[in-house]
Amino acid sequence: xxxxxxxxxxxxxxxxxxxxxxxxxxxxxxxxxxxxxxxxxxxxxxxxxxxxxxxxxxxxxxxxxxxxxxxxxxxxxxxxxxxxxxxxxxxxxxxxxxxxxxxxxxxxxxxxxxxxxxxxxxxxxxxxxxxxxxxxxxxxxxxxxxxxxxxxxxxxxxxxxxxxxxxxxxxxxxxxxxxxxxxxxxxxxxxxxxxxxxxxxxxxxxxxxxxxxxxxxxxxxxxxxxxxxxxxxxxxxxxxxxxxxxxxxxxxxxxxxxxxxxxxxxxxxxxxxxxxxxxxxxxxxxxxxxxxxxxxxxxxxxxxxxxxxxxxxxxxxxxxxxxxxxxxxxxxxxxxxxxxxx
Length: 342
Prior knowledge:
By secondary structure, the chain is mainly beta. It folds into two domains: 31-190, Immunoglobulin-like (Sandwich); 197-332, no CATH class. 12% of the residues lie in helices and 39% in strands. The protein contains three helices and 21 strands. Strands 11, 12, 17, 19, 20 and 21 form a six-stranded antiparallel beta sheet that branches. The chain is globular and about 70 Å long. The N and C termini lie far apart (90 Å).
């Protein structure tokens, strides 16, 4: 009797382990990278489910105690019943194109790319926005939709150069189309560009500079694209030697424009420098035991220097293991705050 009980128990445990392994196997996912027009986008083409995304940790759940959402479990059930479930979902999309002043942009070029069951695996459609900037794609079947928006004479913003929308897998965040609340895509109308002095040299837009690690200052001449004893901006840093950076516990970096200054900025289109609020110097100090400890620093600024003043924009990259810094800049030599390129 005892042997029969143990045999039954072993069979049940074996069946349970088999079910767990089968469920985990069905939760694998493959991602494919594809380019759409001139924009590289990551195109999700899963055969099953992302195992990592099946585990959902709700608020106040102790670390490691993740749960599987009911919607995801239902999704698992459906793709097990029909392996092509992903690519059979109803796809409808409603969008609107506006400019930097939220004015409708008519005749904008819209491109759709949809993962579906076609022979190629994707289908494409092109159309233009109407007089109110509106556009739509309806009555299609698929899984993941990419939308790109553009128009000659306009700059494309971040959300208009390749936005993706999921229609099948709830673990990826399902998109819900709403004709009354279309997705808004932003473009910026091109203005009158200026002849800017830039860090461009040959094919490279970067201006790499060497800076002494011991705090000795170096000057940057934006107009001549060189470093030395004279220039418009002074840079100072204290960093370990390259061989020692992994064990270092502190470093600092300082920018100074004595007759002007810098303003940190995060504008998507940094085409107009501000007139005021410039700081003559900006310094970053990093200690390993502090919350702001980082190994690499990337910043963008508007800059101002000289009398009469000249304005520009500056991108900085440096780090504890850098033997200096990388600068990318554009300066308007005419004294205008216009930084839009021709």
